[in-house]
Amino acid sequence: MYNKAILIGRLTTNPEMKRTSSGVSVVSFTLAVDRRFSGKDGDRKADFINCTAWRGTAEFICKHFGKGDPLGVEGSIQTRSYEDKNGNKRTAVEVVAENVFFVGSKKSDAREPEEPEASMPPKGQDDFEDDDLPF
After folding, report:
1. CA dist 67 to 47, 70, 91, 100, Å?
2. What is the DSSP letter of 85?
3. How far is CA 88 from CA 41, 42, 81, 82, 85, in A?
4. pLDDT tens per residue across span 75-113
Protein backbone atom coordinates (compact mmCIF):
# COMPACT_ATOMS: atom_id res chain seq x y z
CA MET A 1 0.00 0.00 0.00
CA TYR A 2 1.14 3.48 -0.78
CA ASN A 3 0.26 6.92 0.60
CA LYS A 4 1.72 9.86 -1.33
CA ALA A 5 0.39 13.38 -1.80
CA ILE A 6 1.91 16.05 -4.03
CA LEU A 7 0.46 19.56 -3.82
CA ILE A 8 1.28 22.94 -5.28
CA GLY A 9 -0.48 25.93 -3.80
CA ARG A 10 -0.06 29.17 -1.90
CA LEU A 11 0.39 29.68 1.82
CA THR A 12 -2.67 31.28 3.39
CA THR A 13 -0.74 32.83 6.33
CA ASN A 14 2.83 33.39 7.43
CA PRO A 15 4.14 30.13 8.91
CA GLU A 16 4.92 30.20 12.64
CA MET A 17 7.51 27.86 14.07
CA LYS A 18 6.65 26.03 17.27
CA ARG A 19 8.61 23.54 19.34
CA THR A 20 7.42 20.46 21.12
CA SER A 21 8.25 19.98 24.81
CA SER A 22 11.29 17.99 23.69
CA GLY A 23 12.48 20.83 21.41
CA VAL A 24 11.46 19.41 18.01
CA SER A 25 10.57 22.08 15.41
CA VAL A 26 7.08 21.90 13.93
CA VAL A 27 4.97 24.17 11.73
CA SER A 28 1.33 23.78 10.73
CA PHE A 29 0.12 25.68 7.70
CA THR A 30 -2.71 25.76 5.19
CA LEU A 31 -2.10 25.53 1.47
CA ALA A 32 -4.68 27.00 -0.95
CA VAL A 33 -4.70 24.69 -3.95
CA ASP A 34 -6.68 25.64 -7.07
CA ARG A 35 -9.03 23.02 -8.43
CA ARG A 36 -8.38 21.84 -11.93
CA PHE A 37 -11.70 23.02 -13.38
CA SER A 38 -13.85 26.14 -13.01
CA GLY A 39 -17.29 26.07 -11.45
CA LYS A 40 -20.57 26.82 -13.23
CA ASP A 41 -20.04 30.54 -12.64
CA GLY A 42 -16.64 30.38 -14.36
CA ASP A 43 -14.69 31.03 -11.17
CA ARG A 44 -11.96 28.68 -10.11
CA LYS A 45 -12.44 27.17 -6.70
CA ALA A 46 -9.66 26.33 -4.26
CA ASP A 47 -9.27 23.69 -1.59
CA PHE A 48 -7.62 24.69 1.68
CA ILE A 49 -5.46 21.79 2.77
CA ASN A 50 -3.96 21.55 6.25
CA CYS A 51 -0.32 20.52 6.34
CA THR A 52 2.30 19.90 9.01
CA ALA A 53 6.08 19.83 8.69
CA TRP A 54 8.65 18.70 11.24
CA ARG A 55 12.30 19.38 12.07
CA GLY A 56 14.44 20.71 9.23
CA THR A 57 11.52 20.87 6.80
CA ALA A 58 9.62 23.10 9.25
CA GLU A 59 12.65 25.37 9.66
CA PHE A 60 13.11 25.59 5.88
CA ILE A 61 9.48 26.65 5.37
CA CYS A 62 9.64 29.32 8.07
CA LYS A 63 12.91 30.69 6.70
CA HIS A 64 12.00 30.86 3.00
CA PHE A 65 8.22 31.21 2.66
CA GLY A 66 5.51 33.68 3.67
CA LYS A 67 1.85 34.37 3.14
CA GLY A 68 0.85 34.10 -0.52
CA ASP A 69 4.06 32.41 -1.63
CA PRO A 70 3.72 29.41 -3.93
CA LEU A 71 4.96 26.21 -2.33
CA GLY A 72 5.25 22.62 -3.45
CA VAL A 73 4.66 19.90 -0.87
CA GLU A 74 5.36 16.20 -1.11
CA GLY A 75 4.21 14.05 1.76
CA SER A 76 1.60 11.63 3.05
CA ILE A 77 -2.01 12.02 4.16
CA GLN A 78 -2.70 11.29 7.81
CA THR A 79 -5.96 11.16 9.71
CA ARG A 80 -6.53 11.28 13.43
CA SER A 81 -9.64 11.16 15.56
CA TYR A 82 -10.27 13.33 18.59
CA GLU A 83 -13.07 14.60 20.77
CA ASP A 84 -13.86 18.33 20.68
CA LYS A 85 -14.69 20.45 23.73
CA ASN A 86 -18.39 19.59 23.35
CA GLY A 87 -17.72 15.85 23.38
CA ASN A 88 -18.29 15.38 19.63
CA LYS A 89 -16.06 12.93 17.77
CA ARG A 90 -14.05 14.64 15.03
CA THR A 91 -11.58 13.52 12.40
CA ALA A 92 -8.66 15.67 11.29
CA VAL A 93 -7.09 15.14 7.87
CA GLU A 94 -3.69 16.65 7.06
CA VAL A 95 -0.71 16.23 4.81
CA VAL A 96 2.54 15.58 6.66
CA ALA A 97 5.20 17.24 4.51
CA GLU A 98 8.31 15.18 3.85
CA ASN A 99 9.75 17.46 1.16
CA VAL A 100 8.92 21.02 0.17
CA PHE A 101 10.13 22.91 -2.86
CA PHE A 102 10.05 26.29 -4.57
CA VAL A 103 7.63 26.52 -7.48
CA GLY A 104 7.74 30.23 -8.37
CA SER A 105 10.43 32.70 -9.17
CA LYS A 106 12.41 34.44 -6.47
CA LYS A 107 10.67 37.37 -4.78
CA SER A 108 13.11 39.79 -6.38
CA ASP A 109 12.15 38.39 -9.80
CA ALA A 110 8.40 38.58 -9.17
CA ARG A 111 7.80 40.88 -12.13
CA GLU A 112 6.22 39.57 -15.30
CA PRO A 113 8.65 37.94 -17.72
CA GLU A 114 9.52 40.07 -20.70
CA GLU A 115 8.48 39.00 -24.16
CA PRO A 116 11.48 37.81 -26.15
CA GLU A 117 12.48 40.16 -28.92
CA ALA A 118 11.76 38.94 -32.40
CA SER A 119 14.87 37.74 -34.14
CA MET A 120 15.54 39.55 -37.40
CA PRO A 121 17.55 37.86 -40.13
CA PRO A 122 20.85 39.51 -41.02
CA LYS A 123 20.50 42.24 -43.61
CA GLY A 124 20.45 40.83 -47.09
CA GLN A 125 19.49 37.28 -45.99
CA ASP A 126 15.81 37.75 -46.85
CA ASP A 127 16.56 39.29 -50.25
CA PHE A 128 16.31 36.19 -52.42
CA GLU A 129 14.19 35.08 -55.32
CA ASP A 130 11.93 32.01 -55.31
CA ASP A 131 14.28 30.49 -57.91
CA ASP A 132 17.08 30.47 -55.32
CA LEU A 133 15.26 28.05 -52.98
CA PRO A 134 16.51 24.44 -53.08
CA PHE A 135 12.99 22.97 -52.90
Report:
1. 16, 9, 26, 15
2. T
3. 36, 37, 10, 8, 7
4. 999 999 999 999 999 999 999 999 999 997 665 444 344
